[in-house]
Amino acid sequence: MGSVAAALGLSSPLFTNGHLSSPNNSTSLSVEDANDLAMAKPSSTAVSLPNYKWRLLIAYDGTRYAGWQFQVSPPTIQCIVEKALVQITKLEREHLHFVGASRTDTGVHAWGQVAHFITPFNYDSLETIHSALNGLLPSDIRVREISAATPEFHARFSVKSKVYCYKIYNDSIMDPFQRHYAYHSAYKLNTTAMREAAKLFIGKHDFSAFVNTSRNDRVRDPVKTIFRFDVSEMGPLIQLEVEGSGFLYRQVRNMVALLIQIGKEAIPTDIVPKILATQDRRELAKYALSAPPHGLCLVSVKYNEEHLRLPSECPTSSFGRYHTISKCKLPFY
């Protein structure tokens, strides 16, 4: 371990996180949430050892992956990142307690996914492990930032809000460079109507009519708060950006699908509160199917300031580093 520790910038403990904290959450938990919560609680028989928690900011192109949630085949983002962490830290995956803020679906992208993992050792510098991680990861997954985290921080349970963006390329001919990141609508969309309808989602509502039944039928609180829902245009590109306290399975894609139908002027804007009031997914199905996943991107995950503060005497956060050369290796002519 000595040579490995030196290579990865490990040191003797500088700050002690102690046992992992267990968040208070009174809502119904899914199987995965329960497992994550269980992993975050110390065993009553466990020996008290220093633990160090690390926060990752991750970006990925979800085209080739079956979403975030861990599975080996077909591969997922969590699986790929965990394998790299296991290789670098020499820890088993069950000891890393690697958790992401959002379980993005198959084909969905992310610019601001947040995750955390645990190690029993500290680092002198995070730049080395940061560089090593990105060196092992495929080019369509990148760790943008690594920082130390307090024991109270939890990538999923500490979330204050999430921001998603859905892109629509609204032109008669699709831009081939946008084909993996924007949904193509050859129908001319009325963005004014879409903007008016989007405002009707803002506020605290029961979104049962906008949730798909997931494969594991996980139980979630259907009441969510939408803080903003913006519709903007940049030439043929229409961006629908929504921020909420949380989102149900495929909720964003279902809301977007309804807005697209409203943009086509196939249905009126006031259909939004009527469907919300039914709390019935079958009612939405009369008007729209889920929008395709490739237009959706997790832009950012927001936390309260106290959850983002750095522990005392921790290593400096790493945002990546530029390569430099000490002398010109090309001859002068």
Task: Please render the helix and strand layout as text.
Blueprint: H1 2-7, E1 10-11, H2 31-39, E2 52-60, H3 77-89, H4 93-96, E3 99-100, E4 109-119, E5 122-123, H5 127-136, E6 141-149, E7 159-170, E8 183-185, H6 191-199, E9 203-206, E10 223-234, E11 237-244, H7 251-263, H8 271-278, H9 281-285, E12 296-303, H10 305-308
Parallel strand pairs: 4-12, 7-8
Antiparallel strand pairs: 1-5, 2-4, 2-6, 3-4, 7-11, 7-12, 9-10, 10-11
Helix pairs in contact: 3-5, 6-7
Structure characterization notes:
With 333 residues, this protein is an alpha+beta fold. Helices cover 24% and strands 25% of the residues. It is built from ten helices and twelve strands. A hairpin with a 2-residue loop joins strand 10 and strand 11 (237-244). It starts with a helix and ends in a 25-residue tail after the last helix.
Relevant terms:
333 residues; alpha+beta; ten-stranded mixed β-sheet; two-stranded antiparallel sheet; 10 helices; 12 strands; 24% helix; 25% strand
Structural category: alpha+beta
Largest sheet: 10 strands, mixed
Shape: globular
Q: What amount of the residues lies in strands?
A: 15-25%
- Oligomer classification: single chain
Low-confidence runs (pLDDT<50, min 5 residues)? Answer: 1-8, 10-31, 38-47
The counted number of beta strands is 12
Helix content: 10-25%
In DSSP terms (H or I, runs of 4 or more residues), the helix count works out at: 10
The overall pLDDT average reads 86
Question: H/E order of the elements?
Answer: HEHEHHEEEHEEEHEEEHHHEH
As a whole number of angstroms, the C-alpha radius of gyration is 22 Å
N-to-C terminal Cα separation, in Å? 49 Å
